[in-house]
Amino acid sequence: MTLFEYTQTFVPLPYKTVTSGVLMFKSTDETSEPDIQGYLSNPETLAILNRHGREGWELVSVQQINRGHEQIGNQNAQAWAVGYAISTGFLFFFKRCTAPLTSLDKPPQT
């Protein structure tokens, strides 16, 4: 029987930003659009996967992690609200084989 050990790591998903205003009133806000190109070109994301691979870990699953996001506004004096889920990143699950059991360690077959 083969035994496995498991680990996981979280990789955040960046979002595009938009800048508005001028001079000292300038502000940068996050949009609800993920920056896929920024995520894929981030060397840290690939470094995490490569490091786990070099250490013998096998990627077995990826889980998207979401958070609730709401927008509340006032349009023509009528209140409105919108709620939706956006991804904050991905949880990568890895496994690797530990030392296999010898025939003396194996439980008896019935």
From TrEMBL:
<dbReference type="InterPro" id="IPR025234">
    <property type="entry name" value="YjzH-like"/>
</dbReference>
<protein>
    <submittedName>
        <fullName>DUF4177 domain-containing protein</fullName>
    </submittedName>
</protein>
<dbReference type="Pfam" id="PF13783">
    <property type="entry name" value="DUF4177"/>
</dbReference>
